[in-house]
Design goal:
Blueprint (H helix, E strand, L loop, with lengths): L9 H9 L2 H18 L7 E5 L5 H8 L3 E6 L2 H14 L5 E5 L13 E7 L8 H11 E12 L1 H10 L3 H5 L18 H11 L2 E8 L10 H5 L1 H11 L11 E7 L10
Helix pairs in contact: 2-10, 5-8
């Protein structure tokens, strides 16, 4: 098994994710969380966007004056991110490395203050090992912004549309070149991995807690403002967090290492 590389479907990814209400809603909810996180961190940060794709979020941080290193295993995604940085006039605050998240440590001169790891964990073969690598790249007191594909949301969506046999068979992905992630993740498992490594979880947000379950799909577009207001109202409380198609977790690396009393 190998980690997913989007070189072959970069254009499809851009069109079907970033160019839809799914992508717009994801970015809106994500930035609500990021703005809250940035308010408690130093004014100028060293940021790593690991698996940063086309760089929408990275460019937003660069616009705010932070120094951003974006890496991606896909050369095509790196090229698209560089083009977007030029278009937005933030290239001076950004650096680009064609590298997997697992290997990014060799490209860092020193630990960073903030790590973004959005919609990548579900595509890697060994997610726990990647989280440990990112821990080693983060300075004490730094923060992690992690967004992952929620297995609960996948189950709920398939039940809503009546894919009973698919659910009964374990929802195994059978086509490689689709945008459906390879490894949907159970939230409690991800939380356990983070805490086991040493992170202190500070926030959990469901992303698209209603959007994908609407029967009238035109309301995703025509009623977007009302939908965003309702998503914002409920996305940080249960049971809605655990039903989001994605879950965004914020976590801090403590200044002092955790003591082992065993």
């Amino acid at each position: 098994m190998r980690d997913r590389n989007f070189d072959d479907i970069a254009e499809k990814f851009s069109r079907n994710i970033y160019g839809t209400t799914k992508g717009q809603l994801r970015q809106a909810i994500l930035w609500q969380d990021l703005d809250a996180l940035l308010s408690v961190l130093p004014e100028k940060l060293r940021v790593l966007d690991a698996g940063g794709g086309e760089g929408q979020t990275a460019c937003g941080l660069a616009e705010r004056g932070h120094e951003v290193l974006l890496c991606d295993v896909s050369a095509e995604m790196i090229s698209r991110a560089q083009a977007q940085a030029c278009e937005k006039g933030v290239s001076e605050n950004m650096h680009f490395v064609h590298s997997s998240a697992q290997d990014i440590g060799q490209h860092l001169e020193k630990p960073v203050d903030l790590i973004l790891f959005h919609a990548v964990l579900e595509w890697v073969v060994d997610p726990q090992a990647v989280l440990k690598t990112l821990w080693d790249c983060l300075a004490p007191g730094g923060a992690l912004s992690l967004m992952f594909y929620n297995a609960n949301g996948l189950l709920m969506r398939n039940m809503f549309v009546g894919n009973f046999e698919y659910v009964l068979q374990g929802m195994k992905k059978n086509k490689r070149k689709t945008l459906s992630p390879d490894n949907p993740l159970q939230p409690e498992q991800v939380y356990h991995w983070l805490e086991q490594i040493g992170w202190q979880i500070t926030g959990k947000t469901g992303v698209r807690v209603f959007h994908d379950y609407l029967r009238d799909k035109h309301k995703q577009r025509d009623g977007f403002e009302n939908l965003l207001e309702l998503e914002t109202r409920y996305c940080r409380q249960e049971p809605f967090v655990s039903l989001g198609r994605y879950i965004h977790v914020t976590a801090i690396k403590p200044l002092e290492p955790r003591k082992n009393y065993e």
